[in-house]
Amino acid sequence: MLVESFPRACGLDFGPSNSTLAVHASNHPTLLPLEGEHVTIPSAVFFGTELHESFLVGRAAMGAYVEGSQGRLMRSLKSILGSSLIDERTQVYRRRIAFADVIGLYVSELKRRAERAIGHDIDSVVHGRPVHFVDNDDEADRHAETALRAIATKVGFKEISFQYEPVAAAFDFERQIDRERVALIADIGGGTSDFTVVRLSPARHRVEDREADILANDGLRLGGTDYDRYLSMAAFMPALGHRTMQKRGDVEVPSGPYWDLSTWSSVHHLYDPKRLGELKSIRYAAEQPELLTRLIRVVEQKAAHSVLIEVEAAKIDLSDSPEHESNLDWIEPNLKVFSTRGMFEQVTQKLYDRLKSISLACVKNAGLAPSDLSAVFFTGGTSLVPSVRRAIAENFPDAEMVDGDRFGSVGLGLAIEAKRRYG
Description:
This protein is α+β, with helices and mostly antiparallel strands. The protein contains 13 helices and 18 strands. Helix 4 packs across helix 13, helix 5 crosses helix 9 (304-318) and helix 11 runs parallel beside helix 12 (386-393).
């Protein structure tokens, strides 16, 4: 248990890739340890087999899967919010449970660990949320927030409110400045890209109502998992038969299985027993059946997430290196996949263009010109991708580029907001 006294309100940043939980104590926000000494925890759960009904979260969940434990890994849980999956059920152990309950198990475990760290219950939460859970669909957006509120209620929070994630990150940035700044906050995470134009200063930091300082918000359902998918389809899936022809010579093999294998939120579809029969039929009709055999082997071994983990590792490495080699000899001896940063940037050009457009539009919606900004503040793990940063920075050549805590700024800002709202 931590030594000092902590409040009963928290800020919870439940992210597609990682999550944090923070409280405000001793006049500053603090991220709580959620997995050993780690203050970040992967947004992943692992359900063991029906014979050993174990439930793991975070790094332990990822480790159990990578080590070959029998069971089911689920990751990128937040992407379920705003999709039709939130109202559906999935097979866990010998029963089917709602996807919302899977999220609830994860959030409940985070709450329990945070309470253990501070030594008492946490009653109130400011939940971070993207500007848009869903693009251009207000009803789906409301439904996603309603679902998250219901989950928070079910796990035991008594007071629940929400704050846009880039607004929360702005409050963390404000702690670091010594003069007034007009800033664009760019929170580029695993599932969404969110922007806020905000007026900040040391004096404003002490003001309770900050509504007048928030000049514009905007966002897209576009994030790191999209970059994973584009890289997977371009570099990895061809090794498993994507874009190869059927024997008839004028039609490619179906692309559906490859999209599922490249998408964190739908990869589990491949484990439906019917899909294996479909894949074997596709292999029979394929001009290069040996490539489909690799795909079938991945599905039979229930190793689809392992492919996505390799893709994510390649994406991360390409942020620092011009090329990457992925060793897939667990699928087939000596199987390797090569990718380059140039190829990666080429296949994600559409994402680059969308980020460039939305960041500029957010500033215009604030009634400002690009030259009016004094800073661009980056947070979120996907902001480490060079082309992502460049897409935004090129719009604002006169602004200072500032890097925040990639995985902690939102949670810290939510804790600041929790103190304002709940004391």
